[in-house]
Amino acid sequence: MPFTKVDDKGRVVLPNELRRRLSINPGDEFAVEELGPDSIVLKKINLRALLEEIIEKAKDMDLDKLEAEIEEEANKLARQKYKVLERL
Questions:
Q1: CA dihedral in degrees (59, 62, 68, 71; nearest 10)?
Q2: What residues contact 4, with CB distance under 8 A and at least 6 apart?
Q3: Which of 60, 61, 73, 87 is 20 to 30 Å apart from 50, CA to CA?
C-alpha cells in the first residue's frame, strides 16, 4: 500500500500508478465523502457531463404536472401534521 502526505495547502498527491490505472488527469474533479473518523472516499466525477444530463432531463419536464404533484404532496403532509380529515 503506497503512502502519501497532505501538504500545507491540504493537497494529497495520488501515486502515479494509481493515476494511470484510473485514468486520473490534471483538472479531473472528485466528490469527497467522509466515511468515518479516519476514512474518506474520492469519487471521480465528470461535472460537465452531469450538469448537461440534468439540463436535458429538465427540458422534458412538465412544470404544470410537477407543480400539481408538489401541491398535492404539501396538502397531504399538512393534513397529516394537523390531523385534518380529507373531504369526501
A1: -10
A2: 12, 13, 14, 15
A3: 73
- pTM for the model stands at 0.52
Amino acid at the residue 75: N
Q: Distance (Å, rounded) from C-alpha 66 to C-alpha 57? A: 13
Average pLDDT over residues 13-42: 94
CA distances from 86 to 37, 65, 79 (A): 48, 22, 8
Number of H helices, E strands in the chain: 3, 2
Q: When comparing pLDDT for 34 and 1, which is higher?
A: 34
Are 4 and 38 in a shared domain? Answer: yes
In a domain? residue 37: yes
